[in-house]
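Lab notebook: predicted structure, single chain.

Context: the supervisor wants predicted structures on file for every construct in the current expression panel, including those that have not yet been purified. This is the next one on the list. No modifications to the sequence; it matches the entry in the shared construct table.
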Amino acid sequence: MHSWVNDFRIAGPDALRPKKKGRKKILKNRVKKTVTTENTDTTSVDTSIEHIKELEDELLKLRIENAYLKEREACVHIVDTKKAAYLEHEPHAVLDYFDMALSHSKYPHYFPHTFDMDYDKDNRILIVNYILPPLRVLPRLARVLYDEDKKLFQELILSDRERDILYARLLHELPLRTFHELFTVDVAVSLAAIHFRGYLFLEEERKAGKPPVCALEIQTDRATFAASDLYHGDPAVIFAEMGGVIRSQE
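Prediction complete. Output recorded below exactly as produced.
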C-alpha cells in the first residue's frame, strides 16, 4: 500500500496504470533512427549535386553568351571601320565591298564565276577582270517533250547556230549585268565608271599552260549606264552603244 501511494504522489494517475514486464526493446528503435538519419543524409547530398550541376550549366551559358557578345562587338567594330573606309573611297575597302557584291551573284553551275578587280582612286574607275565561260560548257538540251500516244520523252537539242546565238547574247548581257549590280550597291558613289574585261581560256592555250586571252572589253560611266534601258532594249545594241568590243578567237 505504501508503495503505490508514494508512486501516486510522485507521478499522478499514470503511476496506477499496469506496467509491461521485462526489458525495454530499444535496439529496433535505434536501428530505425539510424536508417532514417542515413536516408535523410543521402537525400541532402543528391539535392546538393543537382543544384551544383544547374549552377555549372548556367555558368556555361553565361560564358558562351559573353564570348558571343565580345565576338559580335569585335565584328561590329570591323564592319564600321570598313564602312567608314569605303565611304572615304579607300581603295582596299572599295575592292572588298565590290568583291563581296559580285561574289553573291547567282549564276549557273557551269559558269566559272572567277574574277579579280583593281581600283583607280584618282579617276574612280573600277577595273573588273572576269573569266568567261567557254562555248562548250553551254547546255545543248533546249527542252523535253512528252508524247502521250507513245508514252515517250523526246529531247530537243540546240543546233550549232542556236548555241552561237545564245552564247553571243551571254557575252553581251554578262558585262551589262555586272555594271547593274555594282552601280546599284555603290551608295558612296565611289565609282565614276567601270571597265570590264572578259577573259577566255582557249583549249590549246590551257593545255600549254598559257594565260587566258581577252575576248571582251567594255567601259561605261555612271550617267551613260543610268540612261540605258536594260529592261526593254536589245543587249547587243546597248553593248555596241557603250563601245563594247568582242574579239574573235578563231
